[in-house]
Design a protein that fits this description.
The protein has 104 residues and is mainly β. Helices cover 12% and strands 38% of the residues. The chain has 2 helices and 6 strands. It has a 5-stranded mixed beta barrel with strand order 1-2-3-4-5. The chain is elongated. The relative contact order is 0.27. The model has no long low-confidence stretch (mean pLDDT 91).
Length: 104
Amino acid sequence: MIDYNELDKFYTGVAFSVYVGENGGIFLDKEYNTLFYKLDNEHYADVNHKGKVAKLLRREGIITSNYIVPEYSLQQVESIADVRYASGIVKRLRFNPSNYTISK
């Protein structure tokens, strides 16, 4: 369940799935507006997609993960209403940061 005392760890942003084509080209799948929980300075748990951890993509950065969140898209939530707007009730009730593992 979301702990509303930790609002400083929640962000809204855009996530992309990354695919490598047969010719080695990199493709970004459609974007998802979603709610994130900050696991550390480089990884954000996607509250709306169980188990998915997005790697932060900084400006001028290199894509090193198959699920990314561009740094420019992150906005820290300001209120409980922001969290409720960005996620469904079932996702909020079932969210547990320990269900997200960071792959190295």
